[in-house]
Amino acid sequence: MYRTGLGYDIHTLKEGRDLIIGGVKITHEKGLMGHSDADVLVHAIIDALLGALALSDIGTLFPDTDNKYKNADSTVLLKHVYEKILERNYKIVNLDSNIIAQEPKMMPYIPKMRETLDKVLKIGQENISIKAKTNEKMDAVGQKLAIEAHAIVLLKKV
């Protein structure tokens, strides 16, 4: 049996915060605002994984009203979700994702993101796709006010 899941996340940019995307610290004058580290890519992946198994969403599992998730490392949250996948006897076949940001440029960081995600998901970097896009200066992302991410996963029953 196969199952697919689709995830999405968006966070506003704010001065005084680190920019963490895909578990990687990115050099930029602003970071993403959120209760945890606000890693939009990892959050989209978490929602895709939870969606594939109909286990609700990131906000339900890790509520922003719970102080134990304040400034949490999103890759730790991802590991927790990955364990739920294994407990239900599924494996991740592949992951495809987009990061949408007007700036900074994501391409130089993508190899490290793939490596970081593979350390958690253990599916091989060849099964992790991360693409970088802009919004051509349209909407909040295009105006450099936010960064968003989309992810889709395919799970297979073991």
Describe this structure as you would to a colleague.
- The protein is of the alpha+beta class.
- The chain is globular and about 45 Å long.
- The model has no long low-confidence stretch (mean pLDDT 97).
- The chain has five helices and seven strands; from the N terminus they run ββββαααβαβαβ.
- The protein has a five-stranded mixed β-sheet. A two-stranded antiparallel ribbon has the order 2-3.
- The longest helix is centred in the middle third of the chain and has 14 residues, at 74-87.
- β2 (19-21) and β3 (24-26) form a beta hairpin.
- 30% of the residues lie in helices and 33% in strands.
Features of this protein?
158 residues, alpha+beta, five-stranded mixed beta sheet, two-stranded antiparallel ribbon, 5 helices, 7 strands, 30% helix, globular
Q: Quick gist of this model?
A:
The protein has 158 residues and is α+β, with helices and mostly antiparallel strands. The chain is built from 5 helices and 7 strands.
Task: Give the DSSP E fraction (strand runs of 2 or more residues).
Answer: 25-35%
Low-confidence stretches: none
Q: Rg to the nearest angstrom?
A: 15 Å
Tell me the number of helical segments per DSSP (H or I, 4 or more residues long): 5
Distance between the termini: 9 Å
Q: Order of strands side by side in the largest beta sheet? A: 4-1-7-5-6
User: What's the overall average pLDDT, rounded?
Assistant: 97
The shape is: globular
Largest sheet: 5 strands, mixed
The percent of residues in helical segments reads 25-40%
Q: How many strand elements?
A: 7
What is the string of helix and strand elements? EEEEHHHEHEHE
Report the structural category: alpha+beta
